[in-house]
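Hi R.,

Here's the input for the FE2/S2 (inorganic) cluster complex you asked about:
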Amino acid sequence: PSVSLTDLFDEKSGTISPAIYADPQLYELELERVFSRSWLFIAHETHIPKAGDYLATYMAEDPVIAVRQKDGGVKVFLNQCRHRGMKICRTDGGNAKAFTCTYHGWAYDIGGNLVQVPLEQQSFACLDKKQWGARQARVDSYKGLIFATWNMDAPTLSDYLGDAKSYLDLILDRSEGGTEAIGGIVKWVIPCNWKFAAEQFCSDMYHGATSHMSPMMAASPDTLPGDPTDFSGRQFRASRGGHGTGFFVEGAEWLWRVGQAGEHVSGFDIAAAEQRTNLHRSGKRPVGFSQHMTVFPNFSIFAGANTARVWHPRGPGEIEVWAFGLVDKAASDAEKEQMRLMTLRTFSAAGTWEQDDGENWVEVQRVLRGHEARRTLFNAQMGAGAPRGEDPTFPETITNAFAEEAARGFYAHWQKLMTDVDGSFSKAGSYADAAE
Ligand code: FES
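And here is the predicted structure with FE2/S2 (inorganic) cluster in place:
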Protein backbone atom coordinates (compact mmCIF):
# COMPACT_ATOMS: atom_id res chain seq x y z
CA PRO A 1 0.00 0.00 0.00
CA SER A 2 1.00 3.65 -0.48
CA VAL A 3 0.82 4.25 3.28
CA SER A 4 1.75 2.21 6.34
CA LEU A 5 -1.14 0.21 7.80
CA THR A 6 -0.64 1.85 11.18
CA ASP A 7 -1.05 5.35 9.68
CA LEU A 8 -4.42 4.88 8.03
CA PHE A 9 -6.39 6.38 10.89
CA ASP A 10 -5.21 8.11 14.06
CA GLU A 11 -7.82 8.20 16.79
CA LYS A 12 -5.75 10.49 19.00
CA SER A 13 -5.39 13.28 16.49
CA GLY A 14 -8.69 12.46 14.75
CA THR A 15 -7.09 12.24 11.30
CA ILE A 16 -7.76 9.98 8.32
CA SER A 17 -5.32 9.20 5.52
CA PRO A 18 -7.22 9.70 2.21
CA ALA A 19 -5.32 6.74 0.76
CA ILE A 20 -7.84 4.49 2.49
CA TYR A 21 -10.42 5.48 -0.13
CA ALA A 22 -8.25 5.12 -3.21
CA ASP A 23 -5.41 2.62 -2.81
CA PRO A 24 -6.01 -0.63 -4.80
CA GLN A 25 -3.73 -2.66 -2.51
CA LEU A 26 -5.61 -1.51 0.58
CA TYR A 27 -8.81 -2.50 -1.16
CA GLU A 28 -7.55 -6.04 -1.78
CA LEU A 29 -6.58 -6.23 1.88
CA GLU A 30 -10.06 -5.02 2.87
CA LEU A 31 -11.67 -7.88 0.96
CA GLU A 32 -9.58 -10.34 2.98
CA ARG A 33 -9.36 -8.73 6.42
CA VAL A 34 -12.57 -6.69 6.69
CA PHE A 35 -15.21 -8.31 4.51
CA SER A 36 -14.23 -11.97 4.83
CA ARG A 37 -14.01 -11.70 8.62
CA SER A 38 -17.16 -9.66 9.39
CA TRP A 39 -20.87 -10.46 9.45
CA LEU A 40 -22.38 -9.10 6.21
CA PHE A 41 -26.02 -8.27 5.57
CA ILE A 42 -27.71 -10.68 3.16
CA ALA A 43 -31.48 -10.10 3.09
CA HIS A 44 -34.57 -9.29 5.11
CA GLU A 45 -36.54 -12.38 6.20
CA THR A 46 -39.52 -11.16 4.15
CA HIS A 47 -37.45 -11.23 0.94
CA ILE A 48 -37.47 -15.04 1.05
CA PRO A 49 -40.50 -16.16 3.09
CA LYS A 50 -41.27 -19.62 1.57
CA ALA A 51 -39.22 -22.81 1.11
CA GLY A 52 -37.24 -22.54 -2.13
CA ASP A 53 -37.42 -18.73 -2.21
CA TYR A 54 -34.00 -17.38 -3.05
CA LEU A 55 -32.16 -14.12 -3.51
CA ALA A 56 -28.92 -13.85 -5.46
CA THR A 57 -26.77 -11.24 -3.78
CA TYR A 58 -23.16 -10.54 -2.80
CA MET A 59 -20.86 -10.72 0.18
CA ALA A 60 -18.50 -7.91 -0.87
CA GLU A 61 -17.40 -9.03 -4.37
CA ASP A 62 -18.38 -12.69 -3.85
CA PRO A 63 -21.70 -13.68 -5.44
CA VAL A 64 -23.87 -15.75 -3.09
CA ILE A 65 -27.35 -17.24 -3.04
CA ALA A 66 -29.56 -17.04 0.04
CA VAL A 67 -32.23 -19.76 0.05
CA ARG A 68 -35.10 -20.50 2.44
CA GLN A 69 -34.94 -24.20 3.39
CA LYS A 70 -37.81 -26.62 3.96
CA ASP A 71 -37.18 -26.54 7.71
CA GLY A 72 -37.57 -22.75 7.73
CA GLY A 73 -33.85 -22.03 8.06
CA VAL A 74 -31.77 -20.08 5.57
CA LYS A 75 -28.63 -21.23 3.77
CA VAL A 76 -26.20 -18.87 2.12
CA PHE A 77 -23.68 -20.33 -0.30
CA LEU A 78 -21.24 -19.17 -2.92
CA ASN A 79 -22.83 -18.70 -6.32
CA GLN A 80 -19.98 -20.54 -7.97
CA CYS A 81 -20.08 -23.97 -9.58
CA ARG A 82 -17.46 -26.34 -8.18
CA HIS A 83 -16.68 -27.67 -11.65
CA ARG A 84 -15.23 -24.60 -13.42
CA GLY A 85 -16.64 -21.71 -11.44
CA MET A 86 -19.63 -20.57 -13.48
CA LYS A 87 -22.48 -18.96 -11.52
CA ILE A 88 -24.95 -21.66 -10.59
CA CYS A 89 -27.76 -19.10 -10.46
CA ARG A 90 -27.95 -16.30 -13.01
CA THR A 91 -31.24 -14.69 -12.00
CA ASP A 92 -31.82 -12.12 -9.25
CA GLY A 93 -34.31 -14.11 -7.21
CA GLY A 94 -37.44 -16.26 -7.27
CA ASN A 95 -38.40 -19.75 -6.16
CA ALA A 96 -36.41 -22.82 -7.14
CA LYS A 97 -36.28 -26.57 -6.56
CA ALA A 98 -32.67 -26.73 -7.70
CA PHE A 99 -29.95 -24.66 -9.35
CA THR A 100 -28.43 -26.00 -12.56
CA CYS A 101 -25.17 -24.63 -13.88
CA THR A 102 -25.59 -23.47 -17.47
CA TYR A 103 -22.02 -24.44 -18.47
CA HIS A 104 -21.93 -28.25 -18.24
CA GLY A 105 -25.09 -28.93 -16.27
CA TRP A 106 -24.05 -29.77 -12.71
CA ALA A 107 -27.12 -29.35 -10.50
CA TYR A 108 -27.34 -28.32 -6.83
CA ASP A 109 -30.33 -28.61 -4.50
CA ILE A 110 -31.65 -25.65 -2.49
CA GLY A 111 -29.19 -26.47 0.29
CA GLY A 112 -26.28 -26.11 -2.14
CA ASN A 113 -25.55 -29.86 -2.27
CA LEU A 114 -24.34 -31.21 -5.59
CA VAL A 115 -27.06 -33.67 -6.65
CA GLN A 116 -26.66 -34.28 -10.37
CA VAL A 117 -23.74 -34.46 -12.76
CA PRO A 118 -24.29 -35.14 -16.48
CA LEU A 119 -22.48 -38.30 -17.69
CA GLU A 120 -21.52 -39.13 -14.12
CA GLN A 121 -21.68 -42.91 -14.61
CA GLN A 122 -20.01 -42.94 -18.01
CA SER A 123 -17.26 -40.40 -17.51
CA PHE A 124 -16.28 -40.02 -13.85
CA ALA A 125 -14.32 -42.85 -12.22
CA CYS A 126 -15.47 -42.04 -8.72
CA LEU A 127 -16.97 -38.64 -8.04
CA ASP A 128 -17.88 -38.11 -4.39
CA LYS A 129 -20.64 -35.54 -4.88
CA LYS A 130 -20.81 -34.87 -1.12
CA GLN A 131 -17.38 -33.25 -1.36
CA TRP A 132 -18.37 -30.92 -4.17
CA GLY A 133 -21.31 -28.95 -2.86
CA ALA A 134 -21.35 -25.14 -3.05
CA ARG A 135 -19.20 -23.41 -0.43
CA GLN A 136 -21.36 -22.59 2.61
CA ALA A 137 -21.24 -19.38 4.66
CA ARG A 138 -22.27 -19.23 8.32
CA VAL A 139 -25.73 -17.69 8.73
CA ASP A 140 -27.44 -15.91 11.61
CA SER A 141 -30.26 -13.40 11.94
CA TYR A 142 -31.44 -10.58 14.16
CA LYS A 143 -35.06 -9.35 14.27
CA GLY A 144 -35.73 -10.00 10.60
CA LEU A 145 -32.26 -9.20 9.24
CA ILE A 146 -30.26 -12.12 7.84
CA PHE A 147 -26.47 -11.90 7.94
CA ALA A 148 -23.72 -14.30 6.87
CA THR A 149 -19.96 -14.57 7.30
CA TRP A 150 -17.09 -16.65 5.93
CA ASN A 151 -15.46 -16.45 9.36
CA MET A 152 -16.39 -19.69 11.12
CA ASP A 153 -14.64 -18.47 14.29
CA ALA A 154 -16.56 -15.19 14.43
CA PRO A 155 -18.67 -14.31 17.47
CA THR A 156 -22.41 -14.92 17.17
CA LEU A 157 -24.29 -12.21 15.31
CA SER A 158 -25.81 -11.12 18.62
CA ASP A 159 -22.35 -10.65 20.17
CA TYR A 160 -21.10 -8.99 17.00
CA LEU A 161 -23.88 -6.39 17.19
CA GLY A 162 -23.25 -5.99 20.91
CA ASP A 163 -24.58 -2.80 22.47
CA ALA A 164 -25.64 -1.53 19.04
CA LYS A 165 -28.61 -3.91 19.27
CA SER A 166 -30.71 -1.63 21.43
CA TYR A 167 -30.30 1.14 18.85
CA LEU A 168 -31.17 -1.21 16.01
CA ASP A 169 -34.27 -2.03 18.04
CA LEU A 170 -35.39 1.60 17.73
CA ILE A 171 -35.94 0.75 14.07
CA LEU A 172 -36.66 -2.98 14.06
CA ASP A 173 -38.73 -3.40 17.16
CA ARG A 174 -40.82 -0.29 17.41
CA SER A 175 -44.20 -1.90 16.71
CA GLU A 176 -45.79 -5.30 17.15
CA GLY A 177 -44.66 -7.71 14.43
CA GLY A 178 -41.40 -5.96 13.58
CA THR A 179 -40.52 -4.80 10.09
CA GLU A 180 -41.14 -5.78 6.50
CA ALA A 181 -39.21 -5.16 3.28
CA ILE A 182 -41.32 -3.55 0.56
CA GLY A 183 -41.00 -2.36 -3.01
CA GLY A 184 -38.30 -4.61 -4.46
CA ILE A 185 -34.58 -3.91 -4.36
CA VAL A 186 -33.42 -0.80 -6.21
CA LYS A 187 -29.84 -1.12 -7.49
CA TRP A 188 -27.48 1.49 -8.85
CA VAL A 189 -23.77 2.26 -9.14
CA ILE A 190 -21.92 5.20 -7.58
CA PRO A 191 -18.27 5.78 -8.50
CA CYS A 192 -16.98 6.24 -4.96
CA ASN A 193 -15.36 4.23 -2.19
CA TRP A 194 -17.75 2.22 0.00
CA LYS A 195 -16.52 3.87 3.22
CA PHE A 196 -17.83 7.32 2.25
CA ALA A 197 -21.35 5.94 2.26
CA ALA A 198 -21.00 3.56 5.22
CA GLU A 199 -19.34 6.20 7.40
CA GLN A 200 -21.87 8.89 6.55
CA PHE A 201 -24.79 6.66 7.55
CA CYS A 202 -22.87 5.64 10.67
CA SER A 203 -22.09 9.09 11.94
CA ASP A 204 -22.91 12.10 9.81
CA MET A 205 -25.94 14.22 10.72
CA TYR A 206 -23.67 17.23 10.15
CA HIS A 207 -23.98 17.34 6.34
CA GLY A 208 -27.78 17.57 6.30
CA ALA A 209 -28.31 21.29 6.68
CA THR A 210 -25.77 22.07 3.94
CA SER A 211 -25.99 19.20 1.47
CA HIS A 212 -29.76 18.73 1.62
CA MET A 213 -30.85 22.35 1.93
CA SER A 214 -32.21 22.47 -1.64
CA PRO A 215 -34.77 19.66 -1.29
CA MET A 216 -35.68 20.97 2.16
CA MET A 217 -36.41 24.41 0.71
CA ALA A 218 -38.27 22.97 -2.27
CA ALA A 219 -40.41 20.65 -0.21
CA SER A 220 -41.39 22.71 2.74
CA PRO A 221 -40.09 26.28 2.88
CA ASP A 222 -42.50 27.24 5.65
CA THR A 223 -41.26 24.71 8.12
CA LEU A 224 -37.50 25.06 7.69
CA PRO A 225 -35.70 25.19 11.00
CA GLY A 226 -33.92 28.38 12.00
CA ASP A 227 -30.83 26.73 13.36
CA PRO A 228 -30.48 22.96 13.07
CA THR A 229 -28.20 22.89 16.07
CA ASP A 230 -31.30 23.67 18.13
CA PHE A 231 -32.39 20.09 17.61
CA SER A 232 -31.89 17.83 20.51
CA GLY A 233 -30.10 14.75 19.27
CA ARG A 234 -27.85 11.85 20.20
CA GLN A 235 -24.96 9.98 18.67
CA PHE A 236 -23.91 6.48 19.64
CA ARG A 237 -20.58 4.75 19.05
CA ALA A 238 -20.73 1.01 19.73
CA SER A 239 -18.27 -0.02 22.42
CA ARG A 240 -16.81 -2.43 19.88
CA GLY A 241 -17.50 -3.53 16.33
CA GLY A 242 -17.46 -0.20 14.48
CA HIS A 243 -21.26 0.24 14.45
CA GLY A 244 -22.79 3.66 14.95
CA THR A 245 -25.97 5.67 14.85
CA GLY A 246 -27.41 9.11 15.45
CA PHE A 247 -30.86 10.64 15.68
CA PHE A 248 -32.92 13.57 16.85
CA VAL A 249 -35.12 13.15 19.88
CA GLU A 250 -37.22 16.27 19.52
CA GLY A 251 -37.60 19.35 17.40
CA ALA A 252 -37.22 17.51 14.11
CA GLU A 253 -40.67 16.04 13.55
CA TRP A 254 -40.96 18.37 10.56
CA LEU A 255 -38.42 16.17 8.77
CA TRP A 256 -41.08 13.53 8.26
CA ARG A 257 -43.17 16.01 6.34
CA VAL A 258 -40.30 17.41 4.34
CA GLY A 259 -39.49 13.88 3.30
CA GLN A 260 -42.95 13.59 1.85
CA ALA A 261 -42.34 16.35 -0.66
CA GLY A 262 -45.28 18.38 0.64
CA GLU A 263 -48.20 18.38 -1.72
CA HIS A 264 -47.95 14.70 -2.62
CA VAL A 265 -49.37 13.69 0.72
CA SER A 266 -52.43 15.85 1.07
CA GLY A 267 -55.06 13.94 2.98
CA PHE A 268 -52.53 11.56 4.38
CA ASP A 269 -50.76 12.26 7.62
CA ILE A 270 -47.63 10.17 7.55
CA ALA A 271 -46.35 11.64 10.77
CA ALA A 272 -49.50 10.41 12.50
CA ALA A 273 -49.11 7.02 10.83
CA GLU A 274 -45.52 6.79 11.98
CA GLN A 275 -46.50 7.77 15.47
CA ARG A 276 -49.19 5.13 15.47
CA THR A 277 -47.00 2.31 14.21
CA ASN A 278 -43.92 3.39 16.10
CA LEU A 279 -45.69 3.77 19.39
CA HIS A 280 -43.27 3.13 22.12
CA ARG A 281 -43.77 -0.48 22.99
CA SER A 282 -44.84 -0.95 26.58
CA GLY A 283 -42.31 1.08 28.47
CA LYS A 284 -39.59 0.89 25.83
CA ARG A 285 -37.66 3.95 24.84
CA PRO A 286 -39.24 6.56 22.60
CA VAL A 287 -38.57 6.73 18.91
CA GLY A 288 -35.63 8.67 17.54
CA PHE A 289 -36.40 10.85 14.55
CA SER A 290 -34.46 10.61 11.32
CA GLN A 291 -32.18 7.89 12.61
CA HIS A 292 -29.15 7.01 10.50
CA MET A 293 -27.25 3.82 11.31
CA THR A 294 -24.51 1.58 9.96
CA VAL A 295 -23.90 -1.98 11.04
CA PHE A 296 -20.21 -2.42 10.27
CA PRO A 297 -19.02 -2.75 7.63
CA ASN A 298 -21.51 -1.99 4.87
CA PHE A 299 -25.16 -2.27 5.92
CA SER A 300 -27.00 0.99 6.59
CA ILE A 301 -30.48 2.16 7.46
CA PHE A 302 -32.00 5.61 7.37
CA ALA A 303 -35.19 5.31 9.35
CA GLY A 304 -36.23 8.87 8.46
CA ALA A 305 -36.86 7.72 4.90
CA ASN A 306 -37.59 4.03 5.55
CA THR A 307 -34.62 2.89 3.51
CA ALA A 308 -32.12 0.11 4.13
CA ARG A 309 -29.16 -0.51 1.89
CA VAL A 310 -25.98 -2.47 1.31
CA TRP A 311 -22.92 -0.73 -0.11
CA HIS A 312 -21.44 -3.59 -2.14
CA PRO A 313 -17.80 -2.67 -2.85
CA ARG A 314 -16.67 -2.85 -6.48
CA GLY A 315 -13.03 -1.86 -6.34
CA PRO A 316 -11.60 1.08 -4.41
CA GLY A 317 -13.59 3.65 -6.40
CA GLU A 318 -17.03 2.14 -6.95
CA ILE A 319 -20.04 0.80 -5.07
CA GLU A 320 -23.16 -1.00 -6.15
CA VAL A 321 -25.97 0.24 -3.92
CA TRP A 322 -28.80 -2.19 -3.16
CA ALA A 323 -31.66 -0.42 -1.40
CA PHE A 324 -35.08 -1.52 -0.20
CA GLY A 325 -37.94 0.00 1.73
CA LEU A 326 -38.11 -1.01 5.38
CA VAL A 327 -41.43 -0.35 7.11
CA ASP A 328 -43.35 -1.49 10.15
CA LYS A 329 -45.35 -4.63 9.43
CA ALA A 330 -48.18 -3.15 11.51
CA ALA A 331 -48.71 -0.24 9.12
CA SER A 332 -51.77 -0.40 6.87
CA ASP A 333 -51.42 -1.16 3.15
CA ALA A 334 -52.17 2.48 2.33
CA GLU A 335 -49.48 3.66 4.74
CA LYS A 336 -46.96 1.20 3.33
CA GLU A 337 -47.67 2.40 -0.19
CA GLN A 338 -47.25 6.01 0.90
CA MET A 339 -43.98 5.16 2.60
CA ARG A 340 -42.79 3.32 -0.53
CA LEU A 341 -43.46 6.42 -2.61
CA MET A 342 -41.77 8.59 -0.03
CA THR A 343 -38.64 6.45 -0.17
CA LEU A 344 -38.57 6.55 -3.98
CA ARG A 345 -38.91 10.34 -3.97
CA THR A 346 -36.25 10.99 -1.35
CA PHE A 347 -33.59 8.32 -0.78
CA SER A 348 -33.53 6.02 -3.80
CA ALA A 349 -31.81 5.90 -7.22
CA ALA A 350 -33.71 8.94 -8.51
CA GLY A 351 -34.55 10.40 -5.11
CA THR A 352 -34.11 14.14 -4.70
CA TRP A 353 -32.14 13.80 -1.46
CA GLU A 354 -30.06 10.81 -2.58
CA GLN A 355 -28.39 12.82 -5.37
CA ASP A 356 -26.99 15.30 -2.86
CA ASP A 357 -25.02 12.56 -1.11
CA GLY A 358 -23.79 10.77 -4.22
CA GLU A 359 -22.62 14.07 -5.69
CA ASN A 360 -20.41 14.70 -2.66
CA TRP A 361 -18.91 11.22 -2.57
CA VAL A 362 -18.20 11.14 -6.32
CA GLU A 363 -16.54 14.55 -6.23
CA VAL A 364 -14.32 13.60 -3.29
CA GLN A 365 -13.32 10.43 -5.13
CA ARG A 366 -12.38 12.51 -8.21
CA VAL A 367 -10.25 14.82 -6.07
CA LEU A 368 -8.41 11.75 -4.78
CA ARG A 369 -7.02 11.08 -8.24
CA GLY A 370 -4.51 13.76 -7.29
CA HIS A 371 -1.14 12.55 -6.01
CA GLU A 372 -0.96 15.32 -3.40
CA ALA A 373 -4.65 15.06 -2.51
CA ARG A 374 -4.14 11.42 -1.53
CA ARG A 375 -1.45 12.52 0.93
CA THR A 376 -3.30 15.36 2.63
CA LEU A 377 -4.97 14.30 5.89
CA PHE A 378 -8.71 14.59 6.56
CA ASN A 379 -10.11 16.02 9.78
CA ALA A 380 -12.40 13.76 11.84
CA GLN A 381 -12.17 15.62 15.17
CA MET A 382 -15.77 16.79 15.58
CA GLY A 383 -17.08 16.11 19.05
CA ALA A 384 -13.83 14.54 20.23
CA GLY A 385 -13.75 14.33 23.99
CA ALA A 386 -17.49 14.90 24.37
CA PRO A 387 -18.61 12.93 27.40
CA ARG A 388 -21.23 10.26 27.11
CA GLY A 389 -24.32 11.60 28.80
CA GLU A 390 -26.23 10.00 31.62
CA ASP A 391 -29.49 9.67 29.74
CA PRO A 392 -31.15 6.43 30.92
CA THR A 393 -33.40 6.47 27.85
CA PHE A 394 -30.47 6.49 25.43
CA PRO A 395 -27.56 5.00 27.35
CA GLU A 396 -23.98 5.53 26.23
CA THR A 397 -24.83 8.28 23.77
CA ILE A 398 -23.22 11.66 23.49
CA THR A 399 -25.81 14.40 23.66
CA ASN A 400 -25.22 15.89 20.27
CA ALA A 401 -26.28 14.42 16.96
CA PHE A 402 -23.65 16.58 15.24
CA ALA A 403 -20.44 14.74 16.03
CA GLU A 404 -17.93 12.31 14.54
CA GLU A 405 -17.56 9.99 17.50
CA ALA A 406 -19.29 7.14 15.65
CA ALA A 407 -17.08 7.76 12.60
CA ARG A 408 -14.00 7.42 14.78
CA GLY A 409 -15.39 4.15 16.13
CA PHE A 410 -15.99 2.95 12.57
CA TYR A 411 -12.43 3.70 11.46
CA ALA A 412 -10.84 2.45 14.69
CA HIS A 413 -12.50 -0.95 14.21
CA TRP A 414 -11.67 -0.98 10.48
CA GLN A 415 -8.02 -0.26 11.24
CA LYS A 416 -7.88 -3.05 13.84
CA LEU A 417 -9.11 -5.50 11.24
CA MET A 418 -6.71 -4.18 8.60
CA THR A 419 -3.69 -4.65 10.87
CA ASP A 420 -4.77 -8.06 12.15
CA VAL A 421 -2.51 -10.37 10.17
CA ASP A 422 -3.78 -13.75 11.35
CA GLY A 423 -7.42 -12.88 12.01
CA SER A 424 -7.21 -13.48 15.75
CA PHE A 425 -8.98 -10.19 16.55
CA SER A 426 -12.06 -11.40 14.65
CA LYS A 427 -12.43 -14.61 16.64
CA ALA A 428 -15.20 -14.95 19.17
CA GLY A 429 -12.99 -14.93 22.30
CA SER A 430 -10.80 -11.94 21.55
CA TYR A 431 -13.70 -9.99 20.07
CA ALA A 432 -15.64 -10.23 23.32
CA ASP A 433 -12.67 -8.86 25.28
CA ALA A 434 -11.85 -6.01 22.99
CA ALA A 435 -13.00 -2.58 24.03
CA GLU A 436 -12.28 -0.05 21.32
FE1 FES B 1 -20.60 -25.68 -13.87
FE2 FES B 1 -19.03 -26.95 -15.54
S1 FES B 1 -18.77 -24.98 -14.69
S2 FES B 1 -20.92 -27.57 -14.74
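One thing worth noting: The radius of gyration is 22 Å.

Cheers,
M.
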